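Chain A, query sequence.
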Amino acid sequence: MQYVLGFDGGGTKTECVLLDSQRQPRATTRSGPSNPFRIGHEAATEALTEAAQSAAREAGIELREIAALCAGLAGVGSPQSHEEMLRQIVNAFPNTKIRLITDLELSLEAITQPAAIVLVAGTGSSALGRDANGHTARAGGHGPLLSDQGSAFDVGRLAVAAAVRERDRTGADSAIGAEILRLLKSSSWTELRDRARGAADEVFPRVFPVVAQAAESGDAHAQLLLRNAAQEIAALVDALVDRLKLRDSAIYIAKTGGMVSASKFFDAQLDDQLKKIAPHATIGRLPVPPAEAAARLALELISSSASSATQRATGQQSAGK
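Chain A, predicted structure.
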């Protein structure tokens, strides 16, 4: 029996699935963020290793028994980041066949429909599309300084800024402001500001659930934040629809990321925007969880190696006759 690992890593968490060679799931685990663009390559590798070790323990095997792995990670889109992250993974998992791709590529590979777009709404925001001829295009995913519009990071940052302005205006915290401080265990906005300077990803994305809950309760400002976020994220799909000429095509749009299904209000706003952009599209979720899709791709590494070995052996036998 052989075993493989699949990783889905982003700016908030890393999910890991361990499959055996019969495609049976043996373990599902989770660790911290593994986006090297946001936390660095060493920290990202540590998160992968932690999730893998937990999965091996849960499955009752040794980590050295892992034959192959596939990691779909945010933050490895540039050649330099991809090369460094691959080097670190190779060192952490010696004698293991490895495939490293972006989280967007991983999600798109999980969709069987020829023409499709994957939309990520999580700590960051991005989209990757494919037309029926296999041409691809990407939008967003360049980090909080250049993009990530409408993301949980963006919503959280705007909500904190609004709460601080309300405190300055009235001398008291709004209901949302007080809940943000309570959730993040901060005694003041000054303390929270100092925390955000050193670890913004640990502050702003965590505010999203507060905004989502307030929107569900009818808070007008929270609803405005989520309505604007939906428009910003949908604009990524709009760009791909234009570039790939998919406006009138029957495409599949898969929504993924921590913001999806975390707020009924946000989901409804996003779906409305997407239907306007691509009226013939089917909107849904990924057919399988990304980490499981990654594990299935890892199985292909084993099968392709076995096939190559068989072909070599057959060739050698033929040559010897």
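The longest helix spans residues 290-320. Confidence is low (pLDDT under 50) at residues 307-314.
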